[in-house]
Amino acid sequence: MITVVDYDPGWPERFEQLRREYADAMAAAGVPVVAIEHVGSTSVPGLAAKPVIDCDIVVAEEQVTAATAVLLALGFRPLGELGIPQRWAFKEPDRLSGTNTYVVVDGSLALRNHLGVRDALRSDAALREEYAAVKRCVGAAVSGIDEYGHGKNAIVQRILAAAGLSEGERASIAANEVPSHDEVPR
Question: Which domain holds residue 111?
Fold first, then answer.
């Protein structure tokens, strides 16, 4: 079972705390950042979600190594791309538990995926409610996070279409070979 909870109005403040910490650390190291984005379900007001704050640190491709070094200095452990090109995942230190942090290349399909889902759900109440219902149903029926992700695939594809991603882009996202949590414990 995957825990999906009602929207918590405290999530934006939790993200803002992360954004400030990341922005300050990147600035102190001289790493230029394009944006630090709150993504994932907790970024959508009113949407039920797993209580985990997802954060994309958006940088130019040539800044990925420098941004990674900053996160390592903050206590993160690198997990690599995990099957999603131009998006690097990190295991958070205990003090930041309940967060997912990514370094993402500006303009990449991975970033357009994250922002497209967020923005489509923010702007379409009916789609947001449908997605929440699917998340709750799938979350209650599965035994792990991998099954949870697979169970949401059809509606995520519809959300990506609503966000304006092309059929080819959606197919590319669906074809990403993300290793299971059993293969790469996070």
Answer: 11-175
